Amino acid sequence: MKNILWCCLISWIFWPGFTWAQTTAPSAPTLSVRITEAGTGKPVSFVSGYLKRGRNGNTADENGLLSLSIKQLPDTLLLSEVGYEPVTVPIATQPTDTLIINMRTVTGQLDEVVVTGYRDPGKALMKKVIANKRTNDPQRLTRWTRNNYLRTEVDIENLSANQKRKLLTTMLKVYQQFQNDSSARTSLPIFFREQYRKEYHIRSPQSDAAYLVSEQNLGLQTDEIGQRLDRFNEPLNPYDGIIPIQKTSFVGPASDIGLAVYQFDKPDTLIDAGKYSYRLTFRPRSTTENGFVGSLLIDDGSYAIREVNIRTNAGANLNFIRSLSIQQTYLPIDDSERGTVWVLTKNALRYGFENGLGLLGLPTRIDSTSRTVTIQSTSVYGNYKINPEGVTATNFALAEQTTPSVATFTDAYRLSPLTTRERAIYQAVDSLKNNRQFRNTTRMAAFITTGYWDVRNKVRFGPYSSLFSSNLTEGLRIRTGLWTMEGFDPRWCLWGYVAYGTRDRRFKETVGIKYVANRSPYQKYELTLKNDYDALTANDDMLDNDNLFTLALRKPIPVYQNFLRQVRFAHERDLSPLWSVKTYYSYGSMTPTFKFSYAPSDEIVNVADSSVSLLNTLYNSEVGVTFRYARNERTAIVNYDKLRLYTRFPVWQFHAAAGVPLYRNTYFDYWKLSTSLSQEMPAPLKGSFYYNLTGGVVLGTVPLLLLHIPRGNPNYVADKYAFYSMSPYEFAADRYVSLLTRYSLGGLILDRIPLINKLGLRERVTANLFWGSLSGANRDFNKINTFRTTGSVPYAEAGVGIENILNLFSIDAIWRLNYLNGADAARSTRFGIYTGLKLQF
InterPro entries, from UniProt (predicted)? Predict the structure, then answer.
């Protein structure tokens, strides 16, 4: 059982690769140093090392290991760290082994410098940090550009070479051939990537722009997991009051309420080159709080944070994540407008994941093998330019158009050199590429994780989750799909699927062509021909209806589907780092599976008149445009589509569509106008709050299918985009306002209950409203069809729920508060238990 759970986590991380890259060329000789504390032998972390003649430096890791490229000999190595005496080591010839250097602590710590007039000197010092954070916060800079060198690595920790795991043992032994200090029980790197980016930031309106200059991967099928790993590279700001980590909120130590949340120890006063600083350690007062344990290095005089060395506390509720370690360094730079400002120069994050039954959220001991997966991302920032002339977010992002799509990666892009360990990764991978078992296993892991089977980065089949499903209209539904990948063509994608139902005994299919004219700024054209029930999802993170899970939880109501025959042409492009636009034209027919009729004209007719010809298949021709505004949004291009993943800022959209009756069987001209504001933001003290406020109008007399239909939920499945207790096509409107909300408390209550707090459960509250009215003309035109309008009292529903059950499931109890009676009451769900299944961090 433990091995299965452990492999599931590895499978989740793997993703089939689309691109291939070259490995590094032979590099310069390397000096390896292990730095320890004199007298104790403990490693000294984050020591600054510098070769005087070579004029290159680096920082030791948390284990005191330092690696420097030797450019010329003889040379002199300079070592320095706050609290230790500087060390000078002459290097005459290249050492064959790792140098071991002892550093002595600075004697005579100036305890008398610490203010003793306070009962709690640590708290007093933190008060000064908080009082000066408006001056020291890097976010106060108006504009800047910088370079970012990012290394990302995924490791299997504590994997023994003696274990009977043929593939992993082979990989570990190959790696140990190139890693001199490997032990019998060590970590195995399974992913490594280097990126060099240029970045731009403006404070008001807050916006970031960046473009990739160069990237280097291992050249394996697993390279594409980098798109998923981007979510784990979140540079936090220690001055923020509420710090969001993986959609969970943490109280920062420099928060205005941090003095109440944290216990601060007595600070140590340190001297470095005659300058004073203070090492302040802290921890949450309560183990149930989402907080940090660690230390800050605080500059004397300015009370700016110079270094951050913290980790999430043991009681933090982060799903599969056991711990997160954060290390940052800040250096002062001069701003002509604002004086001296401390800016981030290094950001190192290390995620440790659960293993064994911990993957299911069960409070058990750590797996006896101690194997776990870690993700490390380290960014080194340099070449800051404050208030650069003539640079904007728009023209900065467009600068990529004048450069090659991806430049060849060179040593010049490394703002810090590779360590001996990191060079060994490249060497080991070169040997593993010819291992058939390694290639086949990574491909199978990708198939289990994504549901798609890839053939040489050219063709993709799947997903297997939609191979079999069932519904009341089609009976057993069989569906299989095919996509071409970037190995086939980097710009063109041919895709489609075929489905067959055993009850309706008919084939359904959809085919499409995508053309990505540009990736930055993104620009795509797409032509789609569809002949199927409109059962596909409209949002990226919604559950596909083609699966057996939704059938088992379907409400006992009639089927509300539309058989769609449609041709659609769409164009999507980014106008700037903040703005994007989608335009489309569609023509086709809709045939509902439920009772629906309309007259082929916008004139009101007497439906009781037998001479009036009514239709139940609606032909329509429509053109539309959607403008979207989002700040600092995380995105990823997957299957040639740009997915909008997450931003903590509000997202605004405006949509306009018009009916254009160009053909004989299209009868209706109309306008649809709508606007929406949505946001998922961190909320005190632990959770997050999501809302989606939408309003719009339909101008014109149109049949039911062209009115605004609020999204009802036909299943007992959680769906944050739908009204839980409302059925599809239950309400209709030509003027409407809707509000969907969900407040996740993050365990604020459950974490305080003994025993229950071991399960990592999180409570949430849901409240949804819909108001819609219908003009007299549209009401009379559609009087033969069955639907409701809300009138002056909005539809309302509310509920409570629990998420993170076994780190996978959620359960919500939802009550419908009104519109419980009437002719349409048969499909009303007064109360329901809704469940969800989602891998979410």
Answer: DUF5686
